Amino acid sequence: MTQTSIPTRTPQRVLGEPIDRVDGHVKTTGAAQYSGDHLYPDLAHAALVHATVPRARITHIDTTAADSLPGVHAVITHHNAPRLQPPPKPTLLNLPTLAAGTSVNYLNTDEVHWNGQPVAVVVADSLDIAREAAQRIRVTYEELPATVDFEQEEPNAVPQKNSALSDGGGKKGDAVAALKSADVSVDLRFSTPMQHHNAIEPHTTTAVWNGKALTVHDGTQHIDWTRRHLALRFKLPLNDVRVISTFVGGAFGGKTNVWAGTILAVVAAKVTGRPVKLALSREGVYRTTGGRTPSTQRVALGADADGQLTALIHTSVTQMGRVGGYAEQVVSQSRHLYDAENILVQQHQLTLDSIANGVMRAPGESIGSFALEAAMDELAHRLDLDPIELRMRNEPDRNPMDGKLFARRGLREAYARGAERFRWADRTPEPRSMRDGRWLVGTGVATAFHPAWVFPANVTMRLSADGDVLVRCGFHEMGMGAATAFTQVTAHALRVPLDSVRIEYGDSDLPIGPGAGGSAQTASVSRAILDAAAKLKKDLAALARRNNTSPDEAPATILSRAGRTHHEVAVGADRGIGRLAGQVRFMSTLLRERRKYVKAACGAQFCEVRVDSDTGEVRVTRWLGVFDIGTVVNAKTAASQLRGGIVMGIGAALGEETLVDGHTGRIVNANLAEYHVPVHADVPRIDIECLGDPDPTMPLGVLGAGEVGIVGVAGAIANAVHHATGLRVRDLPITLDKLL
Amino acid sequence: MRRFTYVTANTVTDAVKTKATTPNAKYLGGGTNLVDLIRADIEHPDTLIDITRLPLADVEEISTGAVRIGALTRNSHAAAHPLIRTRYPVLTQAILAGASGQLRNMATVGGNLLQRTRCHYFYDTAAPCNKRSPGEGCAALNGGYTRNHAVLGTSRNCIATHPSDMAVALAALDAVVETESAEGNRRIPIEDFHKPPGETPYSETTLGENELITAIELPVLPPARNSRYRKVRDRSSYAFALVSVAAALETENGRITNARLALGGVGTHPWRARTAESVLKGAPATESTFREAAEAELSTATLLPDNAFKAPLAVRTITATLTSLT
């Protein structure tokens, strides 16, 4: 092999550039294969039957009308379902145990734990037949007393425990006394409703048994957890389970856990001996996957006459299902945002006979920041102080709760830059003072904040003598542009051209990647890629020395001079003692770093709203978000992520609300006609700016962009609505009836 | 989705005859509501008679000067037709305020009149509903969510709203529904077409069992040139009305000579606001008259805690819409 066969193009600057998505073409042309696109010969379709009562024992299931329908292959109930291992008890000592959506062993019990729980599965030749058969099944229940009403249960809420992954309660000084003696104070109650993720792709699983081995195409945010969970439930050796999740049509937290549909698709395939596709209906998504908990919150702030905070109290009540749920850290940001002398944060939980609540984009901060940021605005108004100025007067140098260092904190800069670009100074501070015809005009700001995480990621990196680089890692692409970002990171780390890099992902046959959650995937996989690149370079240097080649030659040149076709390095171990060591290293690093630093992305959200003076209709007309997300890997996809967060925040502020019937515990608007996500006409042009400086403590300086965009959005809108109308709406969503 | 037999009809006579001789059959127009209802296990026809091939898709001026819209005219086509846009702008605006472009391209004007309520509980077969299953009870009235529900024309059995925007404009315009059946032709004034729920909420129109809507006739109505449809809803598009107002106004020397007013989102059927119209007629065309008329119309509203806001919202929206027409 001669030197001329090796690409010698000058590597372009790749990090931070707005590179087009590497999978843009396959997605826009429909060539990308999502979990429901794998058309195995003999593929059968499954449909679920949902319980119609909140808590009960099933006394009888009449399946005769379904059984007799031509094209039906199986009607599976708790009478004939294969026995499964029960879901494991969730523990932080073994993170994959957190995968179970609920503790229910579906179709292995006659008990109903929530209104909507699957009680039967029909497998048929077509989806239409399966759904028709499902409608023909009649279930008789012995109803049991159920607790389904959040408001009624609120007095019975109990304190929520803190965990290593979820900060909760805490105190500094005596906030209660300080509030009493403050020169100026506000003491306010807020509420936020249950919400659902509504990814455009409903949860879909295609399950195929090949003898004793199982392959599952599943839209998931955590391939490894899903794989381990299935192995455990179906009593299979881990190596016999493969989970493939190449493309996920949006998730927003809703595909972090393994919900009923995934399990039951595998059950259906086992019973029928055919590949089975189970695509949840939109209603099925609402009934069988957990949304965001509702919350009630209290924020009380005390300040001296200059606006220096003396007391900050933030408490919350959220719900859990009796069958499990995620302890939403609603007050989390209130430990980090304002330099109050005295702080008290507390979280309480109540338990309902409902499905387990899940994680949804910026769990905690998304709804907690609404209350905190609206309260700050009310305090500013009380103090006759500009709301940005109040925030700047209370911007801390160190973490207010405990004096830890901020790894980086760009909030002052974000507000300064945003105020200038948004022309914040043009507003007249008086509420109801700005008008455009029948529209009342208002502007508002709020702070965005989201903790930064790094999770373990294993990768292999292989350099071929023709200059191609292959990176393999079981990470997840759910629309955020992950494969594109890691192509850039790899090209950057190895100084090779972008088009020489290929990334394989979304498959449990690959080295174990991190879950796509906590805005951590980019930092986590980047760290592994950087480590792998360093290893590869070191190996190449050694190889160069051995072959009398200059270590400054292009990597591929070194390889070819050594007569090697390729060289591969691995970071992390997928199994055995190496895997265990990796987990221990992760936990100890996590705890060590968290003792020292607060690491977070942050930002300043600016918006303008118009409120119809006759009808109270709210329209968002301008948006600017200035963010500190550390290093920006891809300017285009990062801005899209942040924009998407803001769009979702507009939904939460103005329309989204999962309605749960207070008598039956049944979700009544389980569809996209009545659950109001924003339409195009609700979303204005959204300007995004990133400060771009790296965080010195994070891999590549990346803080993560997936969630911080939604934080502060509802607060900024509520504050702008007040500025427009003089009215404070403290209960989301801000629908027009609250403004009449 | 339940199986059904699908047949097509090529003439009106053929359609009406097939319907009369086929048990448990339904006419199929654009299918934008009926097919959903079949999927949701609410409608269970054994046979669907596709009527979209019938020659009933024209908009034309007839000899009397009235405008006749064939029952199978697609909503998009009706909204865009010059005769409608210039003479009855309220109707164009109402149609465009409903659904989405894709749905309007499929939906027919005859079918639009027959769409069924979007009450959450009507759609959920796990909930009791007097409209879906006579005598079963009403989950909404039994402590359910009622924010979207009606405040006018309600009964102890049902408070579901009629969802159509188009029909609200038709109510304001004194439209006439033309039908055909084995018994011959009928002309039904729009106000007599939809029925309040009363004791029989499952019976929604005065249409006979096999009767086919063939056309909607819009009478000569000069004030309709100065007309407007205003829809207030929870998001900018693709949501049903909380309150909608169809209004036409004619004034002379500052006095109201002719006013037409109908409301959507507040009634169990498209609500012709006769009480308000009687206040408006002959009165000065001022905001205070409009408000007085609106308040008179809403004075008989039956309000529940969740939907009580609809009364003041309707008053404000009526007042603002009429004011915009002066």
Automatic annotation (TrEMBL), chain A:
Q: What is this protein called?
A: Xanthine dehydrogenase YagR molybdenum-binding subunit
Q: Does the keyword Oxidoreductase apply?
A: yes
A single GO molecular function, which one? xanthine dehydrogenase activity
> What is the enzyme's class at the highest EC level?
oxidoreductase
What keywords were assigned to this record? Molybdenum, Oxidoreductase
Task: Write down the InterPro entries for this protein, in alphabetical order.
Answer: Ald_Oxase/Xan_DH_a/b, Ald_Oxase/Xan_DH_a/b_sf, Ald_Oxase/xanthine_DH-like, AldOxase/xan_DH_MoCoBD1, AldOxase/xan_DH_MoCoBD2, AldOxase/xan_DH_Mopterin-bd_sf
A family per Pfam: MoCoBD_1
Where does the Aldehyde oxidase/xanthine dehydrogenase a/b hammerhead domain start and stop, copy by copy? Answer: 29-145
EC number, UniProt record = 1.17.1.4
Q: Where is this region: Disordered?
A: 152-172
User: Which PANTHER family does this UniProt record tie to the protein?
Assistant: ALDEHYDE OXIDASE 1-RELATED, XANTHINE DEHYDROGENASE
Keyword NADP in annotation: no
TrEMBL record, chain B:
Which enzyme class?
oxidoreductase
Q: Keywords for this entry?
A: Oxidoreductase
**Per its record, what are the GO molecular function terms?**
FAD binding; xanthine dehydrogenase activity
- Say if the entry is tagged with keyword Cell cycle: no
The source's superkingdom equals Bacteria
Oxidoreductase as a keyword of this entry, yes or no, is yes
Q: Give the Pfam families listed for this entry.
A: CO_deh_flav_C, FAD_binding_5
Q: EC no.?
A: 1.17.1.4
SMART domains for the chain: CO_deh_flav_C
Instruction: Please state every residue range assigned to the domain named FAD-binding PCMH-type.
Output: 1-223
Q: What is this protein's record name?
A: Xanthine dehydrogenase YagS FAD-binding subunit
Species the sequence originates in? Actinophytocola algeriensis
